[in-house]
Each structure stands twice: as C-alpha cells, then as structure tokens.
Design brief:
Blueprint (H helix, E strand, L loop, with lengths): L12 H30 L4 H17 L1 H11 L1 H21 L3 H28 L6 H34 L6 H23 L8 E3 L5 E3 L11 H4 L6 H19 L2 H9 L3 H19 L2 H7 L2 H21 L3 H27 L7 H13 L4 H11 L3 H30 L1
Antiparallel strand pairs: 1-2
C-alpha cells in the first residue's frame, strides 16, 4: 500500500531561507557539472586521471568527516555549513589556479570538506525546519528548486567560456576559458552563504524524563557518529536503507562523471549542446520533483525509487548502445526526471522512521553510501582507456537492476507493519 501522508502544511520562513540558499548554491554547481571534465581533458589528462580526481574529492571528504563532525558540535549546524562551504570554495579555486596534477588532487580532496559539511548538515537542517505534516513538501520543493537552479548554471556553462575567452584572447574550448567560467561559478556559491547565514535551527524536540518532566532531547555528539558501538545501536535500520543506494550510485558513477566526454566523443557534439542537454536534464528533474508528493501518495515513497532504478536500467542501455543521438537524449532526460523525483521521497521515508537525535548520523550514513559511487570513476576511466565503453554501461545496468531488487524487498518489508 502507498504511504499514508497527513495533509501537507505550509513551509516555514526558515524553510524557505534554506530553499533559497540551496537554489543559489546549485546555480554555482551547474557550471562545473558541464565544464569540469572538459577542463581536465583540455589540460591533457586522460580518463584514468580524471577518474582519480573524482575519487580524490569524495575520499577527501570522507577522511575529513570526523573534523567536520567536530566542527558541527563546536559551531552548530549553521556556522558549520558556512565554514565548510568557505573552505570548500577556497580549495576549489586552488584546484583551478594550480594546474599540476599532484597539487590538484590534494586541493580537490580538501574541497571535499565542503561536500561533507553540506552532507552532514543540509538534510538534518531540512528535517529540523519541517514537521511530519510538511516534510515531504519541504524535501521535494528544496530538491526541485535546487535542480531547476542548476539549469541556470548549465545554461551559463554554454555561454561563459565563449564570453570570457574574448577577454583572455583564448579559444572558447581552451583550459583558460573553462577555468575562468568555473571561477565565476565559485563567486555565485559565495552569494548562497547569505541566506544560509540567516538560518536559526530550532531546538531539538522535548521528551519526558524519568520524573515525567519534559526536557530537550539530548543531542548525540557528532564525533560519536564514527563509533561502531553507536552505529550498531541506531534505532532506525539505516544500513538496510543505505545498501541499495551504495550499489546504485556505484553503477551510475561509472557513466555520470564522463557523460560530457562520452557524448562529445561518440557524437561530436558542441559544448553548447552539452550545456543545453544538462540543462534539459536538470529542468526535467526539477519539474518532476514537484510531483514528488503526488507519487508518494499514489505509488509509495520506496516504490517510486524502485521504479526510477528499474527504468534507469533501460535508459543506460539506450545511452550506451543506441546509435541515434535523439534516443540517447530522450533516455537521459527521462531517467533524470524519474530517478531524481524519487530520491528525496526515499530520504523522507527514512527520516520518518528515525528519532530526531539520530537525524545527522543517519544522513551521514546515507551520504556515505551515495559517495561509494566515487570509487567507480577510476575504474571507469581505466576501462575506457584500455577496453572501451561497453563494460562501463553493462556494470551500470547491472548495478541498477540489483539496487531495484533490494529496494523492492525494503518496500515489501516496510509495508507489513502498516497493514497489521
């Protein structure tokens, strides 16, 4: 049976500040999502080295996660996300301004600190700024606004290199033009910190103590998130929820980080075409995400992600093996819309089964599972350099098929208590 949801309530003013901040941030992320791999290729890096860059970013975030957790304890969620974002932006800029591979790997790894601070704070913030009555709405609207904002960044990526190349006396597809465009996008990310700085998360909810008096729920120290004894005592079965995401995102990352290069190599498309395609994908994601509550009520939140994963198998088959560019474009847009519509629903489903004191640790585990995908690009790049594209698409399709089966098992299990 589909999840039964209470009547949706309005999003609070603080919730809208979060949505606005994320929207501006994702305008800044939309530019490098088109251009960064093209920039690395313009520097002369092969696919294997590009894959290692992706791994460095996510591995750096993972290694610095204890520091991020300590800062969240000491600074609080709002100041921690601002600090992490500032460090991440500065390291990103260093990655662009020092174009030697060893230095780029180190600096790009440090920029992963911003990623892990975002991961540790943004979903718990959204959870604290919402209630069960409006949580699905806030999660879906924030995801929708973020993806639509990324459309603006994607479109900027199609014009910024050519515009900036004029002042640089360089080609529009040169490393210099790509670098300048990505630096502009970092400036946009700085602007996102203004609304995020105005957030004031509420206190944790109260619970009855031994004497019956109400007291605030005690916040678990963030550094304990890395204590196996704590993780094994969680009251929500987060590891069961995280496993399908780890498998799915590993498969997807075999293709996603190289998509612009794959399409340019296979079909000879221009940077402007790539920016329009990624804009169309993000637009479809954003528009579809607004339909998230409708799908949650009629299909079920986990069942929606099952559908997205299953259709991704077909989509990657088309992208990997169809000689027709039109079919490839249609498959990419449809897959982006359906899968990303369902992902915030799955997060909301898990949050509703999580005590407030465990929000941050559960989100860290889910984000870690998603970041397992960072292990895929070095393997994908190595296979592309030595074998070709066929194995990476077969691995992606197999991973989505296994993930869909595991998600279906979760959906069946989670329905049982509700029907009792």
């Amino acid at each position: 049976m589909p999840d039964e949801k209470p009547r949706a309530a309005a999003i609070s003013r603080q919730g809208w500040l979060l949505v606005i901040g994320l929207g501006i941030w994702f305008i800044g992320t939309g530019v490098p999502s088109v251009l960064f791999e093209l920039y690395l290729a313009a520097l002369g890096l092969n696919r294997t080295s590009i894959g290692w860059m992706t791994l460095a970013h996510n591995l750096g975030g993972a290694l610095m996660a204890p520091l991020a957790a300590w800062l969240m304890d000491r600074l609080g969620q709002r100041r921690a996300i601002l600090t992490g974002a500032a460090i991440g932006i500065a390291a990103w800029a260093g990655t662009l301004l020092i174009p030697q591979l060893e230095a780029m790997l180190v600096l790009y790894a440090i920029s992963g600190f911003g990623l892990v601070m975002y991961a540790l704070t943004v979903v718990p913030l959204a959870a604290m700024l919402s209630t069960p009555a409006n949580r699905t709405r806030l999660f879906s609207v924030s995801e929708g606004v973020s993806t639509i904002a990324a459309v603006v960044g994607n479109l900027l990526a199609g014009v910024l290199p050519a515009a900036l190349a004029l002042g640089l006396a360089a080609r529009a597809d040169s490393a210099e033009a790509y670098r300048a465009a990505i630096l502009v996008s970092l400036g946009i990310r700085v602007m996102a910190l203004i609304p995020l700085a105005r957030l004031h998360p509420p206190e944790l909810p109260h619970e009855a103590g031994p004497d019956g008096a109400l007291a605030p729920v005690r916040r678990m120290a963030a550094l304990r998130y890395f204590d196996p004894r704590v993780l094994l005592k969680l009251r929500t079965p987060v590891f069961r929820y995280a496993l399908p995401l780890a498998i799915i995102f590993f498969g997807g990352s075999m293709v996603a980080r190289f998509l612009t290069l794959i399409l340019r190599d296979r079909f000879g498309v221009s940077d402007q075409f790539l920016s329009m395609l990624l804009a169309a994908m993000n637009l479809s994601m954003g528009v579809a995400t607004f339909a998230g509550p409708w799908f949650a009520q009629r299909l079920g939140r986990v069942e929606s992600l099952v559908t997205g994963a299953a259709l991704s198998v077909i989509a990657y088959g088309v992208v990997g093996f169809s000689p027709a560019l039109a079919w490839v474009v249609a498959a990419l847009i449809a897959r982006a819309a359906i899968f990303n519509l369902a992902l915030p629903l799955y997060r909301a489903h898990i949050i509703d089964r999580t005590p407030p004191v465990e929000y941050a640790v559960v989100n860290l585990i889910l984000t870690t599972a998603i970041n397992v995908g960072a292990l895929a690009p070095p393997l994908s790049g190595w296979l592309q350099d030595r074998v070709g594209l066929t194995p990476i698409f077969l691995i992606a399709m197999g991973a989505y098929a296994v993930g869909a089966a595991l998600l279906w098992a979760i959906a069946v299990r989670d329905r049982r208590p509700q029907s009792a």
